[in-house]
Design a protein that fits this description.
The protein has one domain: 3-Layer(aba) Sandwich (D-Maltodextrin-Binding Protein, domain 2). 46% of the residues lie in helices and 21% in strands. The protein has 13 helices and nine strands. Strands 1, 2, 3, 4, 5, 6, 7, 8 and 9 form a nine-stranded mixed β-sheet that branches. The radius of gyration is 23 Å and the shape is globular. The structure holds (2R,3R)-2,3,4-trihydroxybutanoic acid.
């Protein structure tokens, strides 16, 4: 081949390669979640990524990032600077107040009850509300039933929590329930919790087994009390501005990925519920069964009339009586 022909041929090949590359350049999207990659949120994010990338034939490339400030994550989704987020419902009520009804303590009997409600008409209506906030509520995830933990101070009965400083989520429902029990609720983002426990700024905190386990709170807290005082849902949120650029077929792919992520999330919550307490004991945590959970319910009761006013006694009854 003459030199000039060779150059022309190479240029043509290069041009071809780069247009093909351009046509196939995957669209980069980001999903954030709180807690480590091995947690019920982290694993769910991996499933989400796998399904999106596979089903789209690689047209989307999903980057997973950990972001423990869940309010910031939701704000970024709302602004469109990140495409998806996964987290607890802690800060979600700031965007859609109606979702706070799910945070009312002692509302759900067990996981089947909670899942039935969030997957059913009540939960689905809540998800639709996000559209008005520039957020797509793709699905309810699950964080788990929350339990109290403390550092040095031993809590043997609900009266013992009186005067304790307990970190709560930045969620007014959680705060008023604990205030009713005589606690000094100290709200902060999840990202601020480990240093607060380390420095003893608070006497304790409350979170589900999957969170305590994956974040090694056994290293920061001595006691775990199985209070199960409230079911903590999670949310898989998408950015409306991103969503509006998707074809109907691609939306189906993302919804499929969301469903699969929910399954992974629930499977991991179940595994943690099954093995977590034994594992935490093995790590040295003093885990206390709570024989009289009703006493905690009683202690938080003074907050109920206000919850009924906020969310409607009817709705709370419907949720409670779901079968
Ligand atoms: O999403 O803030 C909390 O305590 C949440 O349960 C945690 O971030 C998991």
């Amino acid at each position: 081949m003459k030199r000039r022909t060779f150059l022309a041929a190479s240029a043509a090949t290069l041009a071809l390669v780069s247009t093909t590359a351009l046509a196939q350049a995957p669209r980069a999207i980001t999903i954030t979640h709180s807690s480590p990659a091995s947690s019920h949120f982290g694993l769910a994010a991996i499933t989400f990524k796998e399904v999106v990338e596979k089903e789209s034939g690689g047209r989307f490339k999903v980057t997973i990032q950990r972001l423990d400030n869940e309010r910031e994550a939701l704000e970024s989704v709302q602004l469109g600077s990140q495409e998806f987020s996964m987290g607890s419902t802690g800060p979600v009520g700031n965007f859609v107040p109606a979702v706070r009804a799910l945070d009312v303590p002692f509302l759900f009997r067990d996981y089947a009850h909670a899942r039935g409600v969030v997957d059913g008409p009540i939960g689905q209506a809540m998800l639709k509300e996000f559209n008005r906030r520039n957020i797509v509520g793709l699905a309810f995830l699950e964080n788990g039933f929350r339990h109290l933990t403390t550092g040095g101070k031993l809590v043997e009965k609900p009266e013992d929590v009186k005067g304790l400083k307990i970190r709560t989520m930045e969620n007014p429902v959680h705060m008023s329930a604990w205030r009713a029990a005589g606690v000094l609720p100290t709200p902060m983002a999840f990202s601020e919790l480990p240093p607060a426990l380390q420095q003893g700024t608070v006497d304790g905190q409350e979170n589900p087994i999957p969170i305590i386990l994956s974040n090694n709170f056994n290293q920061l807290q001595k006691y775990l009390y199985l209070t199960g005082h409230v079911y903590s849902a999670g949310l898989l949120a998408g950015s409306q501005s991103f969503w509006s650029t998707l074809s109907e077929a691609d939306r189906v792919i993302f919804m499929k990925a969301a469903k699969a992520a929910v399954q992974t999330n629930r499977d991991k919550v179940e595994a943690d519920e099954r093995d977590g307490v034994a594992e935490l004991r093995k790590r040295g945590m003093d885990v206390r069964e709570v024989a009289n959970r009703a006493a905690y319910q009683e202690a938080m009761k003074a907050a109920m009339p206000d919850f009924e006013k906020q969310f409607g006694a009817d709705l709370l009854r419907q949720i409670r009586e779901w079968k």
